[in-house]
Amino acid sequence: MSIHLAEWSPETTRVFVVGLLEWEDPEIWAPFPDAVPGRFDAKLVQFFKSQGVPESQIVYLQDSEATLEAIQESLVEFLEDSDEEELLILYFAGHGDWDSETNEYYFANYDAAEDYEGYWSVSSIIDDIEENFSGSHVLLMADCCYSGGLIDALKERDLSFAYACVTSAYSHNSSTGEWTFTEALMKGLQGDPVVDLDGDGWITLYDFARYAELEMAFIEEQKSMFLTLNDFDPQMQLAKVTKRGTPGGEKRVEVEYDGTWYKAKILEQKGNQARVFYIVDRSEEWVDSDRIRPYEPETFSKGKAVQVEFEEEWYPATVKRGWYGLHFVGYDGYDETWDEWVGSDRIQPA
């Protein structure tokens, strides 16, 4: 069964949100104080409430509420209350971790210490859903380091439900402390035309995933990931375009300022001038067109020998894929466990 907006109703949707910007031990898990004002995890919850999802079908654990015990007990109880044909949306924001020795992925609950046994494991999330959910479709989203571990874990399982997953980063990559990914999600859910990449008047899950991929690559130089399994329709309609604007018309460019070129978006054009939004400081300015050039990041070809920075050391590597200024690399002499996507500041010709 494929879910479309015409069939979707808030009454048959369950939303489980865990958002952390601070932890019990800040020396282990650094807090994100700059992300607290206008936090997008709270905005996401408020959006679903405004759409009519019953409060009994929403769980939101924020910061100190999100201990491992509270998360696990709440999730199981929440899933046990589900009914047939329901859609489960599970979202996490905070710190993520990856144990390279076991290839296990974790989300850092509020009381996470140094022992992986006290972390909220990605595998346990899937276990709990498979064992306790009675619905039909599951949408998983995460905005954190190593969030792509959700996708890797799903690929390894024999699953009972239709799953979709969108993450801010590849499974072997860290992520920034910004809200770029979740802000892209909110734009999609609210019907912003910039997310409507095919211009058909509807924002689908696929539209959002591709828009998030472009945003994360352009702004954060991270590779957002997307997967659907078991007939989860990637064209599931999230929202009808509700705002005026050019569908999919967001232009990502570079703008010259004081002799330096900065990433920016064109918000509006009038004659020979454009109103631009600078990524670096989120400021706006009207500029002449001769100060604008297309964003065309250098991209190395497949098989190119390069050097890649990892923990302040440079290692020989080979490009396996290049896209939009990002490169998927394999480290020479190391197995595929260490393959990752890297941004422009971490790669150079051999």
UniProtKB/TrEMBL annotation:
Residues 244-300 form the Tudor domain. One of its GO terms (molecular function) is cysteine-type endopeptidase activity. PROSITE patterns: EF_HAND_1. It holds the Pfam family Agenet. It comes from the Bacteria. SUPFAM superfamilies: Caspase-like, Chromo domain-like. SMART domains: TUDOR. GO terms for biological process: proteolysis. This is Tudor domain-containing protein. It comes from Desertifilum tharense IPPAS B-1220. The lineage of its organism: Bacteria, Bacillati, Cyanobacteriota, Cyanophyceae, Desertifilales.
